Amino acid sequence: MARRNPLPCRKEKEKDIGAYGSAQKSTRSKNLSNTQLSSLSLSPPPPRRRNPSPSSSAAAASCSPPPPPAPPPPQLAPDLPAPSCCSSCPPPLAKGRRREGVSKMSRRGLMEQDLSKLDVRKLNPLSPEVISRQATINIGTIGHVAHGKSTVVKAISGVQTVRFKNELERNITIKLGYANAKIYKCEDEKCPRPMCYKAYGSGKEDNPHCDVPGFENTRMKLLRHVSFVDCPGHDILMATMLNGAAIMDGALLLIAANESCPQPQTSEHLAAVEIMRLQHIIILQNKIDLIQESAAINQNEAIQKFIQGTIAESAPVVPISAQLKYNIDVICEYIVKKIPIPERNFTSPPNMIVIRSFDVNKPGSEVDEIRGGVAGGSILRGVLRVNQNIEVRPGIVMKDESGNIKCTPIYSRIVSLYAEQNELQFAVPGGLIGVGTTMDPTLTRADRLVGQVLGEVGSLPDVFVELEINFFLLRRLLGVRTKGTEKAGKVSKLTKGEILMLNIGSMSTGARVVAVKNDLAKLQLTAPVCTSKGEKLALSRRVEKHWRLIGWGQIQAGMTLEVPPCPL
Known about the structure:
Blueprint: H1 10-17, H2 54-63, H3 128-131, E1 137-143, H4 149-157, H5 165-170, E2 177-186, E3 197-201, E4 220-230, H6 238-245, E5 250-256, H7 264-275, E6 281-286, H8 293-306, E7 317-319, H9 328-338, E8 351-358, E9 374-381, E10 384-385, E11 389-399, E12 405-419, E13 422-424, E14 426-427, E15 432-437, E16 453-456, E17 463-473, E18 499-504, E19 507-517, E20 520-530, E21 536-543, E22 546-560
Parallel strand pairs: 1-4, 1-5, 5-6, 6-7
Antiparallel strand pairs: 2-3, 2-4, 8-9, 8-16, 9-15, 10-14, 11-12, 11-16, 12-13, 12-15, 17-20, 17-22, 18-19, 18-21, 19-20, 21-22
């Protein structure tokens, strides 16, 4: 009787579907110059092995000696858990026993963090204890749908940002994706560029060996720890893209080489980052392997014409193939040289903008195994520490008997800080982090905290229900596909009683125009927002059943809600 194959373990299933792909290829990226575009050739895949026929397998079985009997399973003590299905899967828990968290602070090759020695006045974004474990700069990927934004992030970081079932089925990004990567440079100046630049995952040691032939004995130096914000490119997900733009320090603008330039969302996303005053942009001409050299040169000219007069006018244009990993090392070099790390405020009270929130508990968990809610986002200023008391505003929003909006802030405590798989003792402004709290997980499940602000108790801004803004409107609609040389429709003026969508930080909320005079408007919000005077916001109007970006504004004043004091 033939022996049945064992069932694949949980980790192997996850690796197969690529949902949480942690294995990254160590293939060195190849450089692609304009003269090589036309002569690009791909090597054929290796031939598949055919399964042996039943007769040949029976003959082999008759010739070979019978296999030795399997050893008996080891005897386990009654209070010890059973062995796991493979070496990469954690062992299952014994009944009634809680899993002790394995500390990742002792991961090999990473700097240790010690709260007792923390002095925020001496910290900077390139401090070894910071950059070793946490990303310190946020870079967004923007551009039209299916131009390769998620593929570029995977080519650089090795992390698949498309993780949810509906995203995998439709092969598009729906929620904001996130992935961290470390960028290194060979310490030997003779190592040829751009091959001397290399990107690895966030858990890589701080000084790995160079893999360029002839320089294998040379160490590499960690220059940047980058957090990528993967934005959706579909037109109906423009609000999600604007939420991600609120935390970007730089952007990679993806333009597919096999399509005309510009596509609708290419121009709309570029206008959005221009509103957010994003100065540092790198343009990636993707899918260069699908076209001839002459077509690539013609499209490069179209790109240069498109970016004239925009914030990306002086941006470099890099031809790449994200699928084949061509010129990925060139992207790494440009990120290091063209996108500087912005000035950070480490001494102010911490203030973090929430862009994702989760309930990490699985159905059927034991009561003593339930963990608190997790908030994901980027710290704007200050330093968060483990065991620190925090406040989330606006918190729980409800209406009283008379229909007036009331909000109750959420007070909690930080129990863990993570940057991907790297455990932190403190987190600084910059890359995306996960904050484990003691909050009820029902408050954080399914992104319920998105748009809220997390920070030190008593230090957060006011909560507004009405805003007075100074606004500026675009001349024409962006993101609308037109026929031939037909121009997009003009943006009409704001009218009293009109419904708009506002993007303030990572919060998307509706607003009714109460009054308009010249370039000033008074807006009544459908949901309270924690913000401050001087903050910028994006204005969108419903056009043909889709929200379209029509302009931007700045908060001048507003009506605030009275927030109950902290009971602790």
